Amino acid sequence: MMVESASETIRSTPSGQNGVSSLTNQPDGGGGGGGREGAASGEANGEMSPVELLHFQQQQALQVARQFLLQQATGLSSPSSNEGKQPAVQVPVSVAMMSPQMITPQQMQQILSPPQLQALLQQQQAIMLQQLQEYYKKQQEQLHLQLLTQQQAGKQQPKEQPLGNKQLAFQQQLLQMQQLQQQHLLNLQRQGLVSLPPGQGTVPLQTLPQAVCPSDLQQLWKEVTAAQPVEDSIKQEGLDLTTNTSNSTSFSAAKVSPPISHHPLPNGQSTMHTPRRDSSSHEETPGSHPLYGHGECKWPGCETLCEDLGQFVKHLNTEHALDDRSTAQCRVQMQVVQQLEIQLAKESERLQAMMAHLHMRPSEPKPFSQPLNLVSSATLSKSTSDTFPDGLPHPPTSATAPITPLRQGPSVISSSTLHNVGPIRRRNSEKFCTPISSELAQNHEFYKNADVRPPFTYASLIRQAILETPDRQLTLNEIYNWFTRMFAYFRRNTATWKNAVRHNLSLHKCFVRVENVKGAVWTVDEHEYQKRRPPKMTGSPTLVKNMISGLGYGALNASYQAALAESSFPLLNSPTMINTSSASGMLHVGHDDVSSTVEQVNSNGSNSPRLSPQQYSHPVHVKEEPAEAEDDSRPVSLLATTNQNVTIADDRDLEEELPVEDLS
DNA sequence: GAGAAAGTAAACAAGT
DNA sequence: GACTTGTTTACTTTCT
Question: Residue spans with biased composition (Low complexity) (predicted)?
């Protein structure tokens, strides 16, 4: 018997259970082992979320644009005639806004509900789009201006050089500049989060790679170096993007401590930095440099420690001067950027699909057709790949989402869910403001079809299963059925999770076994359930706070705090669970574990009951069996479940004065 | 690093 | 005897 079970476990756990531990740790190798730590390491390892990718892309685009400007300013203009008149090149784009966030995308997903996420992204995209457009517009104006200047100079000066060539090259650059602009606008449009203004976006996406070819870059470097005086004048007039952090001080990267807050910006700009520049009147933080952060050089692959900016600049000029190596590194970086852009586009598509799904009605049928043409670079766990009949590799970030393509995706998929098909150290949903009932209500279809492990503990799931029933009692087998019915994930590995279910039922005092005529049913002792939960979401108040502030979306804080608060009322949009009274009741929750508090309120009964109305509005009825029948065994807490004020004589309840888990 | 919480595996018993 | 249900223990992992 047991042997069989064991063997079944082994056979049925290609992705989880036994192999889970390793799987759980590995998949996140690049992206978060299910927790903050993992997420952080994921960022450090270079796995970037779409948002980060977008930021990175924007940064790179701006850098490229700057290089064009430099090239234009130094290579195409006559130093003698233009240097003094070099117009200020204002770059309104907020680099700070593009700074990486302290919060991990997984955390964001945990914190924010889908609509909130979408709103966030939309706002972000809108801001970026606006700034990009503004920026590009100015860039073009500058280019035109310089073109005119150049033509003027060409008329005045004898033809020492083939000016036509220069103009041609310049016009090409202008064209490339426009292409670059359109590329980014298209990228934004492709994400579906912004609409491309009419009259734009006619240039094919493929133009970007040609926007700056390595040869251009190399040439640019040389010209930049050769035209030091010009660049000095330029940078003093605010060419450096970093000076524009003042546009959005609330987004300041300086406030964002993690390593990624200083993305290396591999371009020729580095050679421009001099101590004099840093002492300029810009609001740039003293000692800051795009390639300098945390006391070390951020040049790709360098990481040389520099005590101060001066030393760094010296280091930069010596170690990363214009040479073949640096140029090659730039090329590599550009390729990286291009790859990331491609990846970003694909990830964005997926995000869009997920967002679209999140507005789908829970009952809406969603076919398993339409596989996304997703990135192939992602590494997948075995189980994940097993999941996809299309055979397409799907990125790990949505080991879940792709399964139910385009319209599928849990609203608040935890990082664990996203990255692990196997076991998760859950708590996530509970801690991150996602009551299970809400999550399930919103993503019922998703979990039902996607082979994704729900980010809930067994205890939570069991409780949910029981509470969903009118009688709030289930037999073990019914609990099994609920699991398999609700979650595709639990249609596999049956031996393992069933064992876990039984284990949890026995282990937790909150689950009360009630003898019945036909056998035994399990009920939930809400009081015990609440007791077993930590009174606070340890660290979460600050964590959430930091998350929000760390988002770097300063102006959005309010809205997202509100959104966060809203996420505490998950049932508001749940068709089956409506209780508006809870909202007001929850507003005071503040820094506590929201979900915990929410349910705490419920358990207290006196306050606004929440969660499933049926859970708290109806008394428990033991199936068919008069309550007296259970006197012998554990008559226990059916009443306690109902009344919430436990007068339980059960042996298990006698333990409640003791540490809950005295078993272990 | 300690402790708690949770997941997994397994042994075992009792009942059907 | 096979299977289910239930309990318990041990161990590991994750998180605070």
Answer: 242-252
